[in-house]
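Last lecture ended with a question: if I hand you only a sequence, what can you say about the shape of the protein? Today we answer it with a concrete record. The protein is UDP-glycosyltransferases domain-containing protein. Below, first the input exactly as provided, then the predicted structure, then a couple of comments.
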Amino acid sequence: MSSVVFLCFGILGCFDPPQLAEIAAALEKSGHRFLWSLWRQPPKGGLAMPTDCGGDHEGLLPEGFLKQTENRGMVCGWAPQTAVLGHAAVGGFVSHCGWNSILESLWFGVLIVTWPIYAEQQKNAFEMVVDLDLAVELRLDCRDECGGGSYGCGGADVVAAEEIQRAMRGVMDGGNLVRERVREMREEQRDFLWKVGLRVVR
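The predicted structure:
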């Protein structure tokens, strides 16, 4: 059963503490198993990159969150995204909608919750939700995307835990029509590559 939600926002994607608290609250209340790839926000006003927090979550997450979710969730730094999305346990992907992330999720048939942070990601999110009906909307646009000058670290527009929970339910609950479309797309991609591969071999 695909029962795990994977949250990953790319190597430039990070959030302010108030937003991290809302994500944590959504995960705690949802009851879903999860894997959360978390990056530490750089100092405000500079051009430093976010950093991989590894196992050091000091000051990032609400007190008690890790204890409350220790039997069903894991928070890490960098994660091997392709390997994670390819695992049968993963059923949903809360993503910044970078192009590679979209291609990988479609290849493995994992339904995306859209949360674009910067650059072309809002266009990708719009196309996935509105044009193609292949994702579940949380956000379609980037709001306050540069949070004081640092890469991809949103500040002012805090997405509430209830909204995040609703979107996660949208990808994890059974009988989802969008999920069926994603599965169909997965099969179409594989069939196409199989046929092209046969032509190349011949």
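Comments.
1. Residues 177-201 form the longest helix (25 residues).
2. Helices lie at 17-30, 65-68, 81-85, 99-108, 121-131, 161-172, 177-201.
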